[in-house]
Amino acid sequence: MDKQALIDYTLQLADNALIIGHRNSEWCGHGPILEQDIAISNIALDYIGQARNFYQYAAALIGNGATEDSLAYLRDAIDFKNCLLTELPNGDWAQTILRQFFFSAYQYFLYQQLQQSTDQQLAAIAEKAFKEVTYHLRWSSEWVIRLGDGTEESRERMLHAIEELWSFTGELFEATTYEQQSVNDGYGVAFQEIQHSWMKKVGLVFEEATLPIPAANIWMQSGGKKGIHTEHLGFILAEMQFLQRAYPGAEW
Amino acid sequence: MSNTEWSLWEVFIRSKQGLDHKHVGSLHAADAQMAIENARDVYTRRMEGVSIWVVESKNIHASNPTEAGALYDPANDKAYRHPTFYHLPDELKHM
Question: Domains in chain A, ordered, with CATH?
Fold first, then answer.
């Protein structure tokens, strides 16, 4: 078995959770209404919890004194393996909601399969996270429908969000070498099936929201899972890592 | 927010199977579905509940505080409505 692939695979799961969690946390205190401010902050906290579980496992695999903190705070942008979708700026509420929906639908089918992973640690984390993600998917689906089939303005904003985000959804299902290895070694999830389920779910929700599905031949962005990021990730890390970099080992 | 404010909802949470739903507070939502989801996020974050009821605040009808005298005072002098009013014979046990 290829241990480096297992480490990379685990880090990718952790980085996705950490970065989208950080993005959602930016809404704290800025939500459109108190109740939704709390809702999206809850989701952010779920993600930080998932990220910690995956980082702890990755740190144990890496050894050499690696910890969940060193993995989150002391790696550079090129080491991060999160999908580009998760690091994009929040935009308006519609854009945040749509990103959450796309990503939650992806995680829903991914974790559903990962619960059967031959790697017991990954399976256990997926089982715990699956319940959280089930709610995220329900919550974000409701909002996509509300905004898509809502007022003229909410619909306009939703259409704009689709335009901004759709080309970042391809990467979710584009297997990197370590993901291919994870499938070969039996603990990872193959993307073909979950991509199919994802398209079906998006289709159903978009239909109810009266939103159009973009054409199938649209060019897709990719790179994040291999460490090639948009300029936005650097700004996230600058803010997130500043304290540990300026005051190494600081605790509070 | 635009000029159309979401309506106010009252939230009732059942903390355990077998107990009654208890009023815990209120929140804003566009409809019942959203009210339940908001209630889940606002009022059950520390494992407070196993069931949620919501009802639009405008559907709650309350007694008038200025009529309190007429409504509640007459019960004041009817001590015989309380079981403690009655003396139990010593022979009666386990009451």
Answer: 3-246 (1.20.1260.10)
